[in-house]
Design a protein that fits this description.
The protein is mostly helical. It is built from 13 helices and no strands.
Length: about 325
């Protein structure tokens, strides 16, 4: 089969499946339920939705600022606006192809800040390792507060965060050993692979060599605090969800995070609004209110990422005129 067709199908099929599941979910619902769902969305308090959007943007800005701490040991000090726009371009790309945004982030910095792609990408890999650790930590806290539901969900979906982390570290270790083996090769093609791998490793090691470790830790905690707060305030936007405890919100956050990380921006085999809504249903809230929460949060954050991501695509070359390599 044509490689381009295979690549296109990998993008299109998950999106089509997600759209189908959403259509099937809405079409199979009773008219009364659809009416209640629409009512919950329409009557949502716009103040809390706007506050959630602001918190989301602040988390992206903090991520862009934190990234600069990883690049500093490599001898690069990118402008904050370039870092921020590269992050937002990455989020936009992830809506089409999961995890493609990380590659595009590295390409953006290589293009407009003259940072070698392999080194920029290496710092992004380090970021993701830290983020995975944070998600596992939050999952553990949610598990303590709401053990029964979270363990049941993870078991049903065959999700093992510790196994995922172990595999990631194993791959990094194998890559490191591979570089050691390739060090003595004189083949020109192998030398290119080795140089790319060493640059990637340099980027990953920057998390150890950076000077502002406490500032990095502060922004890491801030990013995830803002993520949770972004979820938390939406409960005040939906009627009848104000009584949802922090434990319920954390479970919704963890389930939603896994949905987002495994699909095209939350639309795929596990559509974000439906999965998050199921959490509230499990804890006794009305189905229409729980799924309205998921729809409001997903649609508002997706919309702002599309808008800012598209503007970033536009303004990156404009603000860096003459810097493109």
């Amino acid at each position: 089969m044509n490689p381009k067709l295979i690549k296109a199908l990998k993008i299109i099929l998950p999106l089509l499946l997600g759209v189908f599941l959403i259509w099937y979910f809405l079409s199979s619902a009773t008219p009364e339920y659809r009416k209640e769902l629409l009512k919950s969305i329409v009557t949502a308090n716009p103040f809390w939705v706007c506050l959630s959007l602001i918190l989301g943007i602040l988390s992206h800005l903090s991520r862009a600022y934190r990234w600069r701490f990883l690049l500093a040991p490599l001898g690069y000090t990118p402008k904050l606006y370039n870092s921020f726009m590269a992050v937002m371009v990455g989020y936009l790309a992830n809506l089409g192809i999961p995890r493609s945004g990380e590659v595009l982030r590295g390409v953006s910095m290589a293009t407009y800040e003259k940072i070698p792609f392999e080194k920029a990408f290496g710092t992004i890999v380090s970021e993701r390792i830290i983020d995975l650790i944070m998600l596992i930590l939050i999952t553990s806290i949610a598990g303590v507060l709401q053990t029964e539901y979270l363990l049941t969900f993870l078991k049903e979906k065959n999700i093992n965060p510790l196994l995922t982390l172990g595999i990631l570290f194993l791959l990094i270790f194998i890559g490191f050993l591979g570089l050691q083996i390739l060090k003595k090769s004189s083949n020109s093609f192998i030398i290119k692979i080795r140089d790319f791998g060493m640059g990637l490793l340099d980027g990953m090691k920057s998390i150890i060599t950076m000077k502002r470790k406490w500032a990095f830790l502060f922004h890491t905690i801030l990013i995830w605090f803002l993520y949770i707060l972004m979820f938390y305030v939406i409960k005040y936007a939906v009627p009848n969800l104000e009584s949802a405890s922090i434990g319920v919100i954390l479970v919704a956050f963890v389930v939603g995070s896994f949905s987002m990380s495994t699909t095209n921006g939350g639309i795929g085999i596990l559509p974000f609004p439906i999965v998050v809504g199921a959490v509230f249903v499990f804890f006794g809230f009305a189905k229409s209110d729980g799924e309205a929460f998921g729809w409001i949060l997903w649609s508002s954050q997706t919309a702002i990422n599309i808008v800012i991501g598209a503007l970033s695509f536009l303004f990156l070359p404009i603000l860096n005129k003459g810097k493109k390599t």
